[in-house]
Design a protein that fits this description.
The complex is a heterodimer of chains A (295) and B (285).
Chain A: H1 2-39, E1 42-43, E2 52-53, H2 57-65, H3 67-98, H4 105-113, H5 120-142, H6 155-183, H7 187-195, H8 200-211, H9 213-227, H10 232-237, H11 249-259, H12 263-294
Antiparallel strand pairs in A: 1-2
Helix pairs in contact in A: 3-6, 3-9, 3-11, 4-6, 5-6, 6-9, 7-8, 11-12
Chain B: H1 2-11, H2 15-41, H3 46-51, H4 63-72, H5 74-105, H6 109-119, H7 126-139, H8 146-169, H9 174-182, H10 187-198, H11 200-216, H12 219-225, H13 234-244, H14 249-284
Helix pairs in contact in B: 4-5, 4-14, 5-6, 5-8, 5-11, 8-11, 11-14, 13-14
Classes of the chains: A mainly alpha (295), B mainly alpha (285).
């Protein structure tokens, strides 16, 4: 009897401890997610009383000929690949320099990290000002042609601008992860390589880089999950322009749901984004798991 | 003096190193130049901004600042941001820490399933559910209010916080719980008087990453509290303000500086902790 009572008490305590978080998570994710799945099978503009069930029509339409979605998907994919590669390469380069024990290390770390603490929307506006007004003055005083280009007005250049601004904002974050990774590498390993006659490049490729693998895993993972959802910086920097060429998938979903009031159609796209994120995450985790076992 | 002999090869300033050092400092200034230009132009008049962006202001006035301060009702925005962040943070820390502690200490199938249910949502991109999140918030009367938005962060922040706490609690020996139980503490008292203080370092990490996230968040506040000037956040107000003053760059830049100034000041003061917290959060998360 006593035992049963204690068991019940334990269960009650388990519930008291876990339910608040569980309820919050359910209302933040699971309930909206189930509603999203339901809406994706309907046609609804938000004004009509009830959504009309249309089955998989939305998905059929998206995959058979939605130029907006296809362009946004291509844009996002290009952005993701270039962002992941460039931000990690630059961050490793910066981290290597900052790990050399320069006198200005503290200043440099702070300087490169600062943009990361700023809101991306505001970063977008600051750069819009630089591209539109600042470059004009810089062009006048230097005479360089780079400043005369229309960095937000031409589709190709606007893509480069978005990519560059995103990297500018977040490179410091990846840099500090790599600095922590470099500091965890035992110094005697590098010394041993030097004694064996390895030059700096050889030392980096054969000793530093393999030992930096855990940091690379984390950084690539973070860069991936952040870049697939790119939205804020585009909104303030180009607002999808010029000519609608810089819409990302997330921005396209936002446009359909909140600007065109295509609730059913927009949520169908949102669901596709979710499945894409899920698949990419699973693939990435399996690859890195396998590599870690081998290592 | 003997110390200098062994340290000499390292301390000697090699020319290559000096060039690198100077080059890096110049690079960092170039890197920060957009921010420097923003600050410079926030002190200029409209005509000055239009004629030359890179020149320094002719006179140092706070006219733009007093104008924007009044136009956006700055103290109100600051209060809104603080209310949202503090309410969000309190719920995330409280609910996630007790849940993660219990889930980590209970070895049952049920506990494992609930833990997975808690952390799986990290895979759901917010844009996938934003429409229905807004509908639920309207139904629950959590939209159009700062405290309502703060409450919504409890659920959005819990998965990562539970994940980080869960991993950390595993490292706290169970003997601590047992000896506290013998001393008569149990349940919530055991947790708050014995366990929670031991979680201090992870709690700091979670506070840092969540403050940076909630303070700067854009899309959720845009959907929830953008309707009235009384509930706007700093970022939202800056966003609206720039939309209204498209060509008045001097005001726009002032609004930018005022929106990011709190973050910069906090960063300068707590730089070491912020960098450490961000790294810890990324490595564990």
């Amino acid at each position: 009897m006593f035992k049963l009572g204690r068991k019940r008490g334990e269960k009650l305590e388990f519930g008291l401890f876990t339910l608040p978080a569980l309820i919050c998570i359910a209302f933040a994710f699971y309930v909206p997610f189930m509603m999203t799945v339901r809406y994706s099978l309907t046609k609804w503009n938000g004004i009509a009383k009830n959504p009309t069930f249309v089955g998989l029509d939305n998905f059929r339409q998206i995959f058979s000929g939605d130029a907006n979605f296809a362009n946004a998907a291509i844009f996002t994919l290009k952005y993701m690949i270039l962002y992941i590669v460039l931000v990690n390469v630059l961050a490793i380069a910066l981290a290597l320099v900052l790990d050399m024990g320069l006198r200005s290390t503290n200043w440099l770390r702070a300087a490169f990290f600062v943009p990361y603490i700023l809101s991306l929307v505001i970063v977008g506006f600051i750069w819009k000002f630089i591209f539109m007004q600042g470059f004009e003055s810089l062009g006048d005083s230097t005479g360089w042609q780079v400043f005369a280009l229309s960095w937000l007005g031409e589709p190709g250049l606007a893509f480069v601008s978005i990519l560059g601004v995103s990297i500018w904002q977040s490179v410091g974050f990846y840099m500090v992860i790599y600095i922590a990774g470099l500091q965890a590498i035992p110094g005697d390993l590098k010394e041993a390589a030097t004694v064996d006659g390895a030059g700096p490049v050889r030392r980096f490729i054969s000793v530093t880089l393999p030992l930096l693998a855990p940091s690379i895993t984390i950084s690539v993972f973070m860069a991936l999950t952040n870049s697939i959802k790119v939205f804020d910086v585009i909104l303030s920097l180009t607002a999808g322009g010029p000519g609608g060429t810089t819409y990302s998938v997330a921005y396209d979903i936002y446009r359909d749901t909140f600007q065109n009031n295509l609730y059913g159609y927009g949520t169908a796209k949102a669901l596709i984004l979710f499945v894409a994120v899920l698949l990419i995450t699973i693939v990435q985790l399996t690859i890195f798991k396998r590599r870690e076992v081998e290592a | 003096m003997s110390k200098t002999i062994s340290a000499a090869p390292k301390k000697r300033v090699r020319p290559g190193r000096l060039v690198l050092e100077i080059g890096m400092v110049l690079l960092s200034l170039l890197f920060l130049y957009p921010l420097i230009l923003t600050v410079i132009n926030s002190f200029k008049s409209f005509a000055e901004v239009m004629s030359d962006v890179i020149a320094l202001p002719q006179s140092f006035t706070f006219e733009n600042y007093t104008y924007v301060w009044k136009a956006v009702n700055y103290p109100r925005l600051f209060l809104n941001n603080t209310v949202i962040t503090v309410i969000g943070l309190l719920g995330i820390i409280l609910f996630s820490s007790i849940a993660a502690y219990k889930l980590s200490r209970t070895n049952s199938r049920m506990s494992g399933v609930i833990y997975m249910l808690c952390i799986i949502p990290m895979l759901i991109p917010f844009q996938s559910i934003m429409l229905t999140v807004l509908q639920i918030a309207k139904t629950l009367h959590l939209s159009e209010s700062t405290w309502g938005l703060g409450i919504q962060y409890w659920g959005f922040g819990a998965p990562l916080a539970i994940f980080i706490y869960h991993g950390f609690v595993k490292g706290i020996p169970r003997e601590i719980d047992e000896s506290a139980t013998i001393d008569g503490a149990s349940g919530f008292r055991l947790f708050f008087s014995v366990i929670f203080p031991l979680l201090k370092s992870v709690t700091t990490t979670i506070i840092i990453i969540d403050v940076m996230w909630i303070w700067n968040d854009f899309l959720l506040p845009l959907l929830m509290v953008n309707g009235s000037p009384a509930t706007k956040t700093l970022t939202l107000a800056a966003y609206t303000f720039v939309g209204q003053y498209t060509s008045d760059w001097q005001y726009a830049m002032t609004a930018m500086v005022m929106a990011v100034l709190p973050s910069i000041v906090v960063f300068i003061l707590l730089q070491k902790y912020i960098v450490r917290g961000v790294v810890a959060g990324a490595v564990k998360g």
